[in-house]
Amino acid sequence: KQYEEAIKDLDKAIELDPESYDSFERRGCCKYELNQYEEAIKDLDKAIEIDRSNTDSWSYRGRSKYFLEHYEEAIKDLDVAIVFDPEDSSNWNFRGRSKYFLEHYEEAIRDLDKAIELDPEDSSNWNFRGRSKYFLKHYEEAIRDLDKAIELNPEDYINWNFRGRSKHFLDHDK
Question: Which tens digit of pLDDT belongs to each residue from 86-110?
Answer without folding.
Answer: 999 999 999 999 999 999 999 999 9
